[in-house]
Design goal:
Two copies of one chain form a homodimer.
Chain A (H helix, E strand, L loop, with lengths): L4 H4 L3 H16 L9 H8 L3 H7 L3 H19 L8 H18 L1 H9 L6 H22 L6 H25 L4 H20 L3
Helix pairs in contact in A: 2-3, 2-7, 5-7, 5-8, 6-10, 8-9, 9-10
Chain lengths: 198, 198
């Protein structure tokens, strides 16, 4: 036995991450419905048996990819309670852009996979969005307005944010800071409108 | 021959409209990828031969439905050149809400069909969005900001608008006027941010 091997061998987690990254390259450009499990196996460069050892099927692979992206966003946008509401939002949105810019393929893959016709995949995406929605609502509750108006403003704005980020990854413009400020300002504008008296 | 028949018989256009309306009821709740042509034929209540006479296939049916919805939106949001820029926008967004509220099933069907994995369907949707984007950009060009910032602001906001309208059709709240004002204010906020000096 080669004594160097145990050091080089990937852990279960590393292997899973590597397979998810390879898969993201495939489904960053095509929807999940257009991709076969063979495409994913080929991209991962592993045996069919090993692939199935980690992921029982294509759907489980995508669900895992979505969960991983959602978890990254959740960590990166963790609100800082020491900041006042608007600054707290700004910092969280900055964290969101960190995730997008450091994982561009994964981000495109996951947020374009919301175009899947698979109800279960859409449901997993929906859970991630609901978490973000609630987190923002918690942060902006003090800004006023009916809960219903705040909710729809935040829901609409999350679609704004995703559209801006997907467009940014495609066109590589405008500069990141300008786009982040656009997203921050737009949310503040939407919440100000939601808080307006009837 | 029954002399009353010619009066009652639908024209080609009426028949086509009626079939598209019936189809919308089917695909307002399920994505195009989940619907079979038999579902559409059953909903239309016509013979298979007649269906195929109007629509060569499922894809052509959806494309026609998307084109019809896009055309309705195009007509209803026609800018009024006699109004100043912001008022012109407000009037167009009001027209958009007219289309949504008078054709709720068709709107849901078409804008949820953007979740199709079919590249051609997505391309037809994309044409409709590009038309709306350009129309808004023409209207707001005098507001300032780089063309690139204006473009991304408008693109993001169109996703905001669709998300708000789909949510509104689902939850039936908030009141239409409040939601329309939220959309107007949010666009104005996004454009003001886009126009900010570097």
């Amino acid at each position: 036995m080669n004594p160097a091997k145990p050091r080089k061998r990937m852990s279960v987690d590393e292997r899973r991450e590597q397979m998810l990254d390879a898969g993201a390259e495939v489904f960053a450009t095509r929807g999940p419905d257009e991709i076969s499990i063979d495409d994913l196996i080929a991209a991962a460069g592993v045996s069919r048996a090993l692939f199935y050892h980690y992921f029982p099927g294509k759907r489980e692979f995508f669900i895992e990819a979505i969960r991983r992206a959602t978890a990254r966003i959740q960590v990166a946008t963790e609100p800082d309670p020491s900041l006042p509401p608007i600054e707290r939002l700004r910092a969280s949105i900055d964290g969101y852009f960190d995730v997008v810019s450091t994982n561009p393929l994964q981000y495109r893959a996951v947020f374009q996979s919301s175009i899947s016709s698979d109800a279960e995949l859409r449901a997993v995406m929906g859970e991630g969005l609901a978490m973000q929605e609630q987190r923002i609502l918690d942060a902006v509750a003090p800004l006023g307005g009916s809960p219903e108006m705040q909710r729809v403003a935040v829901r609409g704005w999350l679609s704004f944010l995703v559209a801006c980020c997907l467009d940014w990854l495609e066109t590589e413009s405008p500069p990141r800071d300008r786009l982040r400020d656009l997203c921050v300002d737009t949310l503040i504008g939407a919440l100000a409108s939601a808080a307006r008296p009837e």
